[in-house]
Write a structure and sequence with these properties.
The structure holds three protein chains of three kinds.
Chain A (H helix, E strand, L loop, with lengths): L1 H4 L3 H20 L3 H21 L3 H26 L10 H10 L20 H28 L8 H11 L4 H9 L1 H21 L12 H24 L7 H17 L11 H23 L9 H28 L4
Chain B lengths: L1 H23 L3 H21 L11 H32 L11
Chain C lengths: L3 H22 L4 H26 L2 E4 L10 E4 L1 H26 L5 H20 L3 H19 L5 H32 L4 H7 L4 H18 L8 H7 L2 H27 L5 H23 L3 H17 L1 H5 L4 H33 L10 H4 L1 H15 L5 H15 L3 H26 L13 H16 L4 H8 L14
Antiparallel strand pairs in C: 1-2
Helix pairs in contact in C: 1-2, 1-4, 2-3, 2-4, 3-4, 3-10, 3-14, 3-19, 3-20, 4-5, 4-10, 5-6, 5-10, 6-8, 6-9, 7-10, 8-10, 9-10, 9-12, 10-12, 10-14, 11-12, 11-18, 12-14, 12-18, 14-16, 14-17, 14-19, 16-18, 16-19, 17-18
Classes of the chains: A mainly alpha, B mainly alpha, C mainly alpha.
Chain lengths: 338, 102, 488
């Protein structure tokens, strides 16, 4: 990305302003569908910013996860919030009526969200807005000032990472931090993903998505794309050892492949939807924890893989994590319990 | 170097923009968007400043932290959206009820 | 030679975590897996005590790297007493749960994995010395707590869970902002290293402001308590017990750690402000509790008041004999954990019995559920701060610190809060003796539900006698003294 780094300050100003504008529009546009679309665009631009900052690993995660998966989740939720009443969009009068009909399911035109609480007196609201504006401005000012103070160059932990990189089992610094130096965080982070899925399933809204008959073109295209995406995922895991990439990027591509397959009408075989699926979902945390604990038996500290095996341990962990992350993301999108 | 500052300041701006919307906007989908904007802003501050190394090679530690953060944010968003759908199907509302459940 | 500390620290986090996976894979065996895991985790917490007492505080480098490159775990007396309290309450709630969820079979397979992950997150939080790792723990804690709150379904619970989730996510985002600032200023997220490197100035003040705001939101200190009563009252009874007794202690512990190791010298004004908020919380929460018609809401507002006490130590800590104030509020946190868990479990038993929790219609419950009412009253004794309970020891120490520094205002708040607590506890007891005009039908309540509440309440009383054992444990590693040495 050297060509990007060489560009002048103007590019950064434009990128920064675009991000702020997209975020502001996404948070204030009266139409929720438009808001979500703008938010997805925001994620894509943020991905470009990461590339600009030489954070290719983050860019590779931001675009499929931050923009892709989050966007798909938002759109899926939105499609369930507004059953067939797309025309009721942005009608202020309809929103007024809503205030009196609150609590009646199916009556609300959710697309137009009359946001500010309307039952408080106008003077009170104006005062509140003024105070809050003042506070937020003060906060922005001090945060900006603090950031300014942090401007002088600092190498952070770069030297320590480089010194210990040969012992980590991988050649790419970010992968070394994620899977070895700070592997404990990463183990727990996969647990957070699994936890979110358990939470979603416990709510049992069970609104199975994509149960409509798929478009024939989409179906054919998905069946063609999905194997390709699985290949890309495998490549991303492999490349993560010495270049940007790794389990999270690969897992999100795998999850997207699962979503596509699902949208094309493919279903898990009935026998696989029970404990075999759950096994795949839990595999990432289980394998990571098993290896991390087994090394204690060898006299190593928790999660301290011996240098000679570190490469293989990390590869096994990453493969299991990729499978689990892909399965969890696809299951989160589908929503209801299988 | 100046690019780092511009983008880190953008991160600060995004955080406050999101905070404002989180407080002011009533629709829960909007609040969920606002939380995502807040975390994106913080990530930009955290990993943006990682690029200010003298050698030019960015600090990998904050980058790894942001990767973790992005995954956590996706997980939180998925749970929040599922809660929103459950709330909507139980009550028909897509915003919070202020009466403290009494 | 294997340090035994490595084994019990790993066991404290990974036993509940792996048991959660097992419950997810084999939901039908969830009760047994859960109970087994609760026993083993409690055992791990118990083995920690002699190790810490003989060997002193423990620092473990995960992966062998060591801070600042790797993540360090750290356990001292402060971590230890909170891990123990979590284990005792966790064991009690786990014993209560099978019978409770026997009547709600659709919630049972989800309760266990969510609760075990929450337990792993709490233990991980008390053991971590790394600010970013603590962020991941906070998220694990917040998401599992919000999902548990929603478990009973229905509009009010879902509404409360949604608000709780948003508040929790905002709180951890604010915390993470502080972590980002501190990392870029000092190139580490290890608490001990930061403690040595941090300097007074604008950056430290900004980090202090955002981290404290986020954590006070999560701990529900007045005026950030708005989300707590509906969430703690709307959840299923065993979950209410976990939320009130354990979850808010997690963020309070982190506040305390940050203050003791990083920010304590930065501001003279902030501790006074926090103390005022704590005092308002004590009085306002208790007055609200007194006005509630529903038992679970009353207990939830009582938590708002009890959280207030925990913050009264901040203005006292800088003065003469300030460490007594810290000891006092940690003791209060432990006593509140046991007593409040017992109260919510009693409320769960009463709900099972009467199918409602209207205080005015308790209708001679004391004759029909004597074990449960005994549990409620014993827990109430500790909440009021009467001898010989754990709550009494905590308040006694707090008053001692206040008197030594001539802070009469704080002493009055402590005493007045106790009087108000007595009023709302006796209001319940009074109605429990009174027959209602129309006799209430009562269902049967499994003994395991009644006994787990009673044993926890007895624990809150016994805590008063355990002070000679627990106070020395709390001193391991001198958590309240200024840091002198650096970790090796």
């Amino acid at each position: 990305m050297a060509w990007l780094t060489g560009l002048p300050l103007a590019v950064d100003l434009v990128l920064g302003a675009t991000l702020l504008w997209l975020a502001w529009r996404a948070l204030s546009s009266p139409d929720l569908f438009q808001a979500v679309a703008l938010f997805i665009a925001f994620g894509v631009i943020l991905g470009l910013v990461w590339a600009r900052l030489d954070a290719i690993d983050i860019a590779l995660a931001e675009i499929p996860l931050g923009a892709g998966v989050t966007g798909a989740l938002l759109l899926a939720a939105l499609s369930q919030l507004q059953p067939a009443e797309v025309d009721a969009r942005a009608a202020p009068s309809a929103t007024e009526a809503n205030e009196h009909q609150a609590g009646q399911p199916g009556q609300t035109a959710e697309t137009a969200d009359a946001d500010e609480a309307q039952h408080k007196p106008a003077v009170f609201r104006a005062l509140l807005a003024a105070v809050m504006g003042l506070l937020l401005f003060a906060a922005l000012f001090s945060l900006g000032l603090v950031t300014w103070q942090l401007w002088e160059p600092s190498s952070g932990l770069t030297q320590q990472v480089n010194t210990h990189l040969p012992e980590s089992g991988v050649e790419h610094p970010v992968t070394a931090v994620l899977l070895n130096f700070r592997g404990y965080d990463t183990l727990l982070e996969i647990a957070v993903l699994l936890l979110a899925l358990i939470g979603v399933w416990s709510l049992a809204t069970a609104s199975n998505l994509g149960d409509t008959t798929p478009e024939p073109v989409l179906a054919a295209l998905s069946r063609l794309l999905a194997p390709l995406m699985i290949l890309v995922a495998a490549y991303l895991v492999w490349v993560g050892a010495h270049a940007p990439g790794g389990a999270f990027q690969a897992g999100s591509v795998l999850g997207a492949a699962g979503v596509l397959l699902r949208l094309s009408g493919w279903r898990l075989p009935a026998g696989a939807a029970g404990w075999p699926l759950r096994l795949v979902l839990a595999l990432g945390v289980a394998v990571f924890a098993f290896i991390g604990l087994a090394v204690i038996g060898l006299g190593e500290p928790l999660l301290g893989y011996p240098t000679a095996w570190a490469k293989h341990a990390i590869l096994v962990i990453e493969l299991a994590a990729t499978l689990s992350i892909g399965a969890i993301l696809a299951s989160l999108f589908i929503g209801g319990r299988p | 170097m100046s690019s780092v500052l511009v983008l880190a300041l953008t991160g600060a701006g995004l955080t406050l923009l999101g905070l404002h919307a989180l407080i002011v906007k009533a629709h829960l989908l909007r609040k969920i968007l606002a939380l995502n904007v807040i975390s994106s802003g913080i990530f930009l501050l955290l990993a943006g400043l990682a690029a200010r190394t003298p050698g030019g090679e960015p600090d990998p530690v904050p980058q790894a932290m942001v990767l973790t953060g992005i995954v956590v944010a996706v997980a939180a968003t998925a749970l929040a959206l599922a809660l929103l759908l459950a709330l909507r199907s139980a009550t028909g509302r897509t915003r919070l009820d202020d009466d403290n459940g009494q | 030679m294997l340090p035994s500390g490595a084994v019990w620290t790993a066991a404290l986090v990974f036993t509940p975590l792996l048991a959660a996976l097992a419950c997810f894979l084999a939901p039908r065996a969830a009760n047994w897996i859960g109970l087994l895991a609760a026993g083993l985790t409690t055992l791990a917490a118990a083995t920690m005590v002699p190790t810490l007492m003989t060997d002193g505080p423990l620092r473990i480098a995960v992966g062998g790297w060591g801070a600042p490159l790797g993540i360090d775990l750290y356990a001292d007396g402060l971590s230890a007493v909170l891990l123990l309290m979590t284990a005792v309450v966790g064991l009690g709630v786990s014993a209560f749960a099978p019978a409770y969820f026997g009547a709600h079979p659709q919630q049972r397979p989800w309760f266990w994995p969510l609760w075990l992950i929450l337990w792993a997150a709490l233990n991980g939080l008390y053991l971590s010395a790394d600010l970013f790792n603590l962020y991941v723990m906070l998220e694990l804690l917040g998401l599992s707590a919000a999902a548990l709150t929603a478990l009973s379904g229905g509009g009010p619970a879902l509404n409360a869970a949604m608000r709780y989730l948003l508040v929790s996510l905002l709180g951890s985002a604010a915390y993470l902002l502080g972590v980002a600032l501190l990392y870029h200023a000092h190139a580490t997220v290890d608490i001990a290293l930061l403690g040595a490197r941090i300097e007074p100035g604008m950056l430290a003040n900004a980090a202090l402001a955002v981290m404290f705001a986020g954590l006070m939101l999560k701990t529900a200190l007045f005026p950030f308590h708005f989300w707590l009563p509906p969430a703690h009252a709307g959840a299923p009874a065993p979950v209410s017990a976990l939320l009130s007794a354990l979850v808010i202690k997690g963020s309070f512990y982190l506040l305390l750690r940050l203050w003791l190791d990083l920010f304590g010298d930065l501001s003279r004004l902030l501790p006074e402000l926090i103390g005022v908020l704590g005092a308002i919380a004590v009085l306002w929460g208790a007055l609200q509790a007194l006005q509630q018609q529903r038992l679970k809401l009353m207990i939830a507002y009582s938590t708002v008041a009890q959280v207030g006490y925990l913050f009264l130590a901040f203005p006292l800590a800088g003065g003469l004999n300030g460490t007594t104030a810290w000891r006092a509020v940690v003791y209060l946190a432990l006593a509140h954990g046991l007593a409040k868990a017992a109260m919510f479990l009693s409320a769960g038993a009463l709900l099972r019995f009467a199918h409602h929790d209207r205080i005015a219609d308790l209708d001679r419950a004391v004759h029909r559920l004597p074990l449960t009412l005994t549990a409620f009253v014993l827990a109430g004794v500790s909440i009021m701060g009467l001898p010989p309970s754990g709550g009494f020891v905590g308040k006694w120490l707090l008053l001692e610190a206040a008197f030594q520094q001539d802070r009469w205002g704080l002493a009055v708040v402590v005493l007045l809060g106790g009087v108000l607590a007595a009023a709302y506890v006796f209001k319940v007891v009074g109605y429990a003796f009174t027959p209602t005009a129309i006799a209430q039908e009562g269902g049967s309540v499994p003994l395991s539900m009644q006994w787990s509440a009673l044993l926890l309440a007895l624990g809150a009383i016994l805590l008063g006698f355990a002070a000679p054992l627990l106070l020395p444990l709390l001193e391991v590693g001198a958590p309240f003294e200024p840091i002198v040495g650096m970790p090796s």
